[in-house]
Write a structure and sequence with these properties.
Helix content: 25-40%
Low-confidence stretches: 1-22
CATH architecture of the largest domain: Sandwich
Shape: elongated
Number of strands: 9
Number of helices: 3
CATH superfamily of the largest domain: F0F1 ATP synthase delta/epsilon subunit, N-terminal
CATH class of the largest domain: Mainly Beta
Mean pLDDT: 82
Strand content: 25-35%
Order of helices and strands: HEEEEEEEEEHH
Largest sheet: 9 strands, mixed
Length: about 160
């Protein structure tokens, strides 16, 4: 792309950008959660008590005033403890979790589904298929892709139980 074309695109983008007031930060002792995936937004700056996440560095719980953190999600269940005491459990395939110094939390998942929408039978079939693909993989790329599919399917089966 030419420099002139990039400049034209940048100027066009600036013209369509909308400015607005910043959202009010969470009050002292509160934690605002934004939780979204490609298929759905589960929470949009909702104040919650606690969020438990599975990460590659280990599962951990997040409370208000948590130390700022950035972690990669592994396949597993994110548990959200809402202010009314209700627990919401959502399976995530992968993604990131960010804890900011203002006690806001963002969970961005590649794909996410409430546990009650998981079908254990379908998950078992997916696991069997992934294991078969792993054992018959012809090259390193196919093996890596099949290993990821096996890991996700195993976690779905565990979550759906």
């Amino acid at each position: 792309m030419s420099v002139a074309l990039r400049g034209l695109m940048r100027s066009a983008v600036r013209r369509v950008q909308v400015r607005s007031f910043a959202a009010e930060p969470p009050k002292e002792g509160e934690m605002a959660l934004t939780f979204a995936a490609g298929n759905k937004v589960f929470y949009d700056k909702v104040v919650v008590k606690q969020v438990d996440v599975p990460s590659f560095s280990g599962a951990f719980g997040i409370l208000p005033k948590h130390v700022p953190t950035l972690a990669v999600l592994r396949p597993g269940v994110v548990t959200v403890l809402e202010n009314d005491g209700k627990q919401n459990k959502i399976f995530v395939s992968s993604g990131t979790v960010t804890v900011n110094d203002d006690s806001s939390v963002q969970v961005l998942a590649e794909e996410a589904h409430p546990l009650d929408s998981l079908d254990r039978g379908a998950a078992q079939e997916a696991l069997s298929k992934a294991q078969s693909e792993l054992s018959s993989a012809a090259n390193d790329k196919a093996k890596a892709e099949a290993a990821i599919a096996v890991e996700v399917a195993e976690e779905i089966v565990k979550a759906a139980s």
